[in-house]
Structure formats: C-alpha cells, structure tokens
Design goal:
The complex is a heterodimer of chains A (about 300) and B (about 270).
Chain A: H1 12-16, H2 18-35, H3 37-58, H4 70-73, H5 75-108, H6 114-122, H7 129-140, H8 145-154, H9 164-188, H10 192-200, H11 205-234, H12 237-242, H13 249-259, H14 263-288
Helix pairs in contact in A: 3-14, 5-9, 5-11, 7-9, 9-11, 10-11, 11-14, 13-14
Chain B: H1 2-32, H2 48-88, H3 95-109, H4 112-123, H5 127-131, H6 133-158, H7 161-170, H8 175-186, H9 188-204, H10 207-212, H11 220-230, H12 233-265
Helix pairs in contact in B: 1-12, 2-6, 2-9, 2-11, 2-12, 3-6, 6-9, 7-8, 9-12, 11-12
The chains are: A mainly alpha (about 300), B mainly alpha (about 270).
C-alpha cells in the first residue's frame, strides 16, 4: 500500500534523485543478457528445437499421437520398459547399500592405505559405458575371470556377461564410484555429537545407524540414487557392448531406428524415456531441495 | 575384540568392492600386452596388439582429441559468459537464471540416444554437415556445456564479484576490461575444473556419438565398440589400454582441481 502514495507526499529530496539512479541499473541488467547469447543460441539451435522436432516426429507415424501410448499398449515395448525400470531399481538399491557401507567405513576409519583405497574405488568414474561393458566381459565373459575360476572349481565355466545379469554388473560398476564419492562427502558433514548422544543414551550400533546416520545421509542418498536410476534407465553403451539382444528400452529404441527404420516409434519411445529420467531427477531435486545433476 | 572383528569384516567387504572395480582394469591391461590371453601370461608379453591398434585405429584417436579440444574451445567461449550472466543478472537471483540453468541440464538428464535422434531428425538432411565431424562436435558441446557452466558459476557465486567489479568500475574500467581483468581471473579455478571435465567427457562420449558418427567420423569410443565386437580380445584390450593412458592424466588433474575448487568454494 505504501508504494501507492504519490512521491510528492514523501520526502522530496531522495525521491527526486531516484529515477536517474535507477535507469543505469536497469540498462546494466540488459547488458548481462548479451553474455548469454552464444550459449543460449547453441542450446536452442542444437537441442531445444531438435527436441521439439523429435516430439513432432514421434506423432507422425501411422498411429499419430497415439504412438506415445504404445509403450503401454504394445506388449513388446511394455516388457522392455518394465525390465529397464526393474533393472534400474535393483541396481540403485544395490549401489546405495554397497556405497553406504563402504563410504561410511572409509570415512570413519583411519588406516594405512586408506586414501589409496578411496582413489581406487573412484578411479572408474570417467569410464564410458562401452569400456564398462568390456570390464564386465573381462569378469564374466567367455574368457573372463569368473568363468576361469568356476571352471577350475567345478569343471564348468560360468558365463553371464551377455545377459541382464551382466548388464546389472555393468551398471553396478558404473554407479558405485559416483555414489561412494557422494556418501563420503555427506558423511564428512555429519555431526559426530549426535551419534555420541545416541550412544550415551544406550543405542546399539545398528540403532545409531538406522535412526541417526541414515536420516542425516538421506538427502545425499536420494539425489545420488536418482542419478544412479536415471543413468541406468538411459544407458546405452554398456548394453550395446554386451549384446544387441538384451531387452532394455534404449536397445529397443536403437533397434527400431537402425534395424527397422521406424523413426516415429524410435522418436516417441525416446521422448518417453527422456521424460522418465528427467522426472526422476526433478522429483529427487524437489525432495532434497538441492541441485541434482546427472552424470555421464 | 568384537570391534576388531567388525573392522576386519568391513575392511574385507571394502576390499572386495575394490577388487570388483580394479581387477577387470588390471586384467584388460595385461590382456593388451599378452601374446595369447586364453593361454595366459606364459605365452609371453608382446606389444604387437598395441602396434596393431595404433595402425588400425590411429585416426580415431586423433579425431577424438581434435573434437575434445574444439569442444573445450566452444564451451569456454559460450559457457563462461553464460555463467557470468547467470551469476550477475538481477543479482543472480532471477527466475530467468534458474530456468536457463534447468534447461542447460536437460541434455544430461535426458538419455544421449534421445538427443542424438533429435539432432539427426532436425539436421540429418544437411548432407555435408551430417557427414562432417562438426555434427559430432555439436552433440558433444550440447552435452558438456553444463559441466563447464556449473563449476564456473559456483566459483563466481562464492567470490565477491559484484564488489570487485564495482571497485574496478569506479576506477574507470569498462565492461569488457572488467570481464577479462576481474571476472575470468577470479573464476580461474572453476574454469580449470570445468575444462578438465569437458575434455574427459568428450573423449569418452559414446551414447550420442554412436548415433551421430559415420564410417569416416569414428571417434575413440566408437572404435572401441567396433573393436570389442569384431576383433580378438587382445586387440580390444590393447585399445582400452591406450584409452586408459589418455584419460588417467585427465582424471588425476580433475581430482586435484576439484580439491582446489572445493577449498575455494568450501562446498
């Protein structure tokens, strides 16, 4: 209400000086926008507009916009979507459990070689999906370590790299380094006095973990879990290296596009896939209120 | 006593996880220099697989390096000013800045396959563009841009840019002079961290590149996938070995830069 009072009724001297002072400031804001021009031009030309186009192509098939529902109505796409989501969920839970265990251990204990251990655990951070796939082949492939070991032990080699189990191993390999880093960073910020208080009140170690440590780590776990889930849903390189017939949605899209030249289906499925991963990350961000950025 | 036991149990599990991550790397490095991996190390060590990879796939290595450097230049030129705008426009608290930040992350949040398909549908008809490495470069730039903008923005937000610039302006420095004399030196640690990240990601990018490449524009990861699928294990391993030697210095640099940035930003 106060701003409605005409300036003449207030103190005249400072208000008279206001317009000239305000004008350069507004102009300054406009100038800052120019700094964003190169980046935004690139982004609009090579991502935003092509994406809009992709949405259009998705609806251009014989089924029209109904193509977007085919992921639910077509049995094949639906199974491949479900196996993708189930696999990613299992990977996320397993990664979180392993990383909390290892991350807390490394952050809580001081022993010789500890920093080397942490460096080794985070070393595969920048491996692309194809290389991760090859690592799985090294472990569980035809000439892999697990095969050689089981052959020596039981006289029969166990080979599971070229299936969903191999893909699970690959996504685990991909996700563990990232999540461990997040857990270690979050655990560093925990307040040790809270745990001491819980212990002094008679809480057992597992009670401290369940009621004090895990709730404090929760935001970090939600955000890194969402990243892990989203990258597993969208990952392509690992599945591509292991086998072309693993039935996960990215492989289905790839086969529709290159194998059957079914552009409308490939477009609509990849839009659906993109919406799922984006929604996952957005949900995690709104839950934790912090920046959740996906990783390569 | 029980505590000791628990410590060793946890250590054992940690070592197991560590082995899961490191053993395949060591195995593949060994396989790359072994005469016959199926027979084992007793078949002798050799560099012939590395030499074969160098002969067959050398162009992919140079191409990846060129694309990574070009990507770095473009993300620097486009990303640093963009971060500056995000940090300073309306005091850095505008809704517009939040929307732009959110949008920039989209190509990372959305699977690379979707981004690649969108690029092909939109620009696939332009034959010359489609067949050149520029097409791949565009994909890499879109994907890595947020990894340049975010660390630079974080450093800019934590340094007292507004006051420093005001001081410079009161001494008569123009906007461009302030940008190059004040803003960039102050954001140097963020720029370094972003640059290392961009180069590492670009060298390893596969999801987008696989859809965008042509037989004449194969990059290193594309060549890797090709070697894994069609060559013997030793050749794939030797190729992976070369890839490791390319990214390990970048990874070490990145770790060092993150620590330096973290100290400055105190995240």
């Amino acid at each position: 209400m106060k701003s409605m009072i005409p300036p003449a009724s207030g103190a005249p001297a400072p208000l008279a000086g206001q317009p000239p002072a305000a004008r350069p400031r507004a102009a300054g804001n406009g100038v800052w926008l120019w700094f964003a021009v190169p980046g935004l031009t690139l982004f609009c030309a090579f991502w935003l507009l092509p994406m809009v186009r992709l949405v259009g192509v998705g609806a251009s098939g014989p089924d029209g916009a109904m193509a977007y529902l085919s992921v639910l109505t077509n049995r094949h796409y639906f199974t491949s979507l479900m196996s993708t989501l189930a696999l990613s969920a299992v990977v996320t839970v397993a990664t979180l459990a392993i990383s909390v265990f290892v991350g807390l251990f490394l952050q809580r204990n001081r022993f010789p070689g500890q920093s080397v251990l942490l460096a080794m655990l985070t070393f595969p951070l920048a491996f692309p999906g194809v290389v991760v796939g090859f690592m799985v082949i090294m472990l569980a492939g035809r000439q892999g370590l697990i095969g050689a070991f089981t052959n020596w032990l039981f006289g029969e080699s166990l080979v599971f790299a070229y299936s969903l189990a191999g893909l699970f191993l690959g996504y685990l390999y991909f996700s563990i380094p990232r999540v461990i880093l997040t857990v270690v960073a979050a655990a560093e910020k925990l307040d040790p006095s809270l745990e001491e208080a819980a212990r002094s009140l008679g809480a057992k170690p597992w009670q401290v973990l369940l009621h004090v440590v895990l709730p404090a780590l929760l935001p970090a776990l939600i955000s890194s879990g969402a990243i892990c889930f989203a990258t597993s849903v969208g990952a392509f390189g690992t599945a591509f290296t292991l086998a072309a017939n693993i039935d996960v949605l990215p492989m289905t899209i790839y086969n529709e596009f290159t194998g059957y030249a079914n552009f409308a289906t490939a477009a609509s499925l990849s839009i659906v896939l993109g919406l799922i991963t984006w929604a996952m990350l957005a949900l995690a961000r709104s839950l934790t209120g912090s920046g959740v950025a996906a990783a390569a | 006593m029980q505590n000791r036991f628990r410590f060793y149990l946890q250590l054992g599990f940690t070592l197991l996880v560590c082995a899961f991550l490191v053993v395949p790397v060591v195995l593949s490095m060994l396989a790359g220099v072994t005469e016959n991996f199926f027979v084992g190390l007793s078949s002798g060590l050799t560099l012939r697989w590395v030499a074969q990879v160098w002969e067959m796939y050398q162009p992919t290595i140079w191409r990846s390096l060129i694309i990574a450097l070009a990507c770095l230049v473009v993300t620097l030129v486009a990303g640093v000013p963009l971060a500056y705008m995000l940090a300073r426009y309306r005091g850095g608290h505008s809704r517009l800045a939040r929307v732009i930040e959110e949008l920039l992350m989209m190509p990372v949040a959305v699977p690379g396959l979707a981004t690649a398909l969108a690029l092909i549908m939109a620009y696939g008809q332009l034959r010359e563009f489609r067949a050149s490495i520029l097409f791949i470069l565009v994909g890499h730039v879109i994907f890595t841009l947020p990894f340049m903008v975010r660390p630079v923005l974080a450093v800019m937000q934590s340094s007292q840019l507004a006051q420093l610039e005001e001081a410079a302006a009161s001494l008569g420095a123009g906007r461009m002079r302030r940008f190059f004399g004040i803003v960039i030196p102050n954001a140097a640690s963020g720029i370094l961290a972003g640059a290392l990240m961009v180069v590492t990601l670009s060298i390893g990018e596969f999801n987008i590149t696989w859809m965008l490449h042509t037989p004449l524009t194969q990059t290193l990861p594309v060549g890797l996938a090709d070697a894994y699928a069609s060559m013997r294990l030793e050749v794939g391993s030797a190729y992976t070995l070369i890839f490791f030697f390319m990214i390990i210095p970048l990874l070490i640099g990145m770790q060092w830069a993150t620590q330096a940035t973290r100290k400055k930003v105190s995240l």
